[in-house]
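Can't paste images in this forum, so I'm doing it all in text. The chain is below; anyone willing to post the predicted structure tokens underneath?
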Amino acid sequence: MNTITQQYVMAVFAVKYRLGLINPLWAPELYAMMGKILNDIDGVRPLKINGYKDHVHVLYSTRGMTPDAEIVRRLKTESSRWLNEKRLTLGRFGWQRGGARISCSPSGLPRLKEYIDNQWQPHRVKTFREEYEGWLRSLGIAISEYDLPEEPQ
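Text version of the structure:
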């Protein structure tokens, strides 16, 4: 008998220096390409990808064959390479170091997908840092200044 593992993970990471470089005109193409990256990783499937000008939320399922840190590293590396090859931003595009990876229960998936779909809503009144900090606190995660995204330069 084989052991079955299934996890649902939301990764959140920001554009370097939280610059608002993600353009809504080409963002759907970026998210589709990120989905392809996930599909190419053994045992990983994209469930929902969306973001705002300065960050992305990536919800995926994993069978645990590839560590989450490696999944996010590949997402960041390959998507920034793609963006730079397409020359979709002025100057060089990069993702900020770090981010968050939080697991989700199957019953929480519909609510989380809706939250990811509506990324443009909360950012009418909240910055990414405010959203991120509030989100971590709502999950009961103790955070320090070191855990929070860098301020824009």
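Residues 68-86 form the longest helix (19 residues). The mean pLDDT is 87.
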